[in-house]
TrEMBL record:
This is Diguanylate cyclase/phosphodiesterase. The chain holds residues 511 to 760 of 778 of the full protein. Residues 1-250 form the EAL domain.
Length: 250
């Protein structure tokens, strides 16, 4: 079990690292955005997954400090990428529902010099389930600032289609579970329906977890899906490697 002390020490000792996974525009084939994914290089355990880190950090109240580190690091690294490329940062529900969340975002942009248009914040449906007026205000403020909001893992959890039109969201990331089996037995009906609805509501549509060319062809066939992400293009890679990929693609 990870302890609070471990996390604090790790933050102080610079043991956290951000990996990046690209999102590719289906029309141009170019990388539009890279999603930051937390890794912990633990001196004894090796690489620790964010699935094990984030919940402990939340429980321990360290999510504010850790979230701040992630956001600032991601903005700083994005500054080293070609101009058109954005960075996507995951916010847990607890992180998003901080009183100071807007200030944190402004500060990270200011400190790094990154234009707001190059920052995308990924929230999940669980962030939209509570404090509706507060949530709406926060999303609107972020939008006014120029930051984009993506709804991550859409279609898992307690999905509600009403989220898509009740909140100002610019992007929907359709969960990779929608892709499982589409080459053989699963009809594309559900994925296409969600994609079309999102597109008609003015959002860009991302399909996550694309692993095969066959899946790519199927999701791209009707032109609704804007971007794709998945092992077919790249696994999450360290910052130095993502810079190489970006240089090659731009
Ligand atoms: O990269 P990986 O597949 O191990 O990520 C597992 C889960 O952890 C994903 O759901 C991802 O969204 C989440 N995650 C990765 N990095 C971060 C982060 O920096 N902050 C938060 N809140 N979640 C993250
Ligand atoms: O919840 P979120 O979408 O942020 O999770 C991102 C995680 O999904 C990454 O940590 C990555 O390891 C995983 N992932 C990304 N692409 C693929 C893929 O093509 N296949 C599978 N199985 N997992 C993926
Ligand atoms: Mn994500
Ligand atoms: Na996801």
């Amino acid at each position: 079990r990870i302890l609070e002390l471990d996390l604090r020490r790790a933050l102080a000792n610079d043991e956290f690292e951000l990996y990046y996974q690209p999102l590719v525009n289906l029309k141009t084939g170019r990388i539009t955005t890279c999603e930051a994914l937390l890794r912990w290089n633990h001196p004894m355990r090796g690489t620790v997954s964010p699935i094990d880190i984030i919940p402990v950090a939340e429980e321990m109240g360290l999510i504010v400090d850790l979230g701040r580190w992630i956001l600032r690091r991601a903005c700083m690294e994005c500054m080293r990428w070609p101009d058109g490329v954005s960075v996507a940062v995951n916010f847990s529900s607890q992180q998003f529902h901080q009183r100071d969340v807007i200030d944190e975002v402004h500060y990270a942009l200011q400190a790094s010099g990154l234009p707001a248009e190059r920052l995308e914040i990924e929230i999940t449906e669980s962030s939209l389930m509570r404090n509706t007026q507060w949530t709406l205000d926060a999303l609107q403020q972020l939008r006014s600032a120029g930051v984009r909001i993506a709804l991550d893992d859409f279609g898992t959890g307690y999905s509600s289609l009403s989220y898509l039109h009740n909140f100002p969201l610019q992007k929907v990331k359709i969960d990779r579970s929608f892709l499982v089996g589409i080459e053989t037995h699963r009809p594309l009906t559900l994925l296409r329906g969600v994609a079309r609805l999102s597109a008609e509501l003015g959002m860009s549509v991302v399909v996550e977890g694309v692993e095969t060319n066959e899946q790519l062809e199927l999701i791209g066939a009707d032109g609704t899906v804007t971007e794709a992400q998945g092992y077919l293009f790249s696994r999450p890679v360290p910052a130095s490697r993502i810079r190489e990929l970006l240089t090659a693609s731009h």
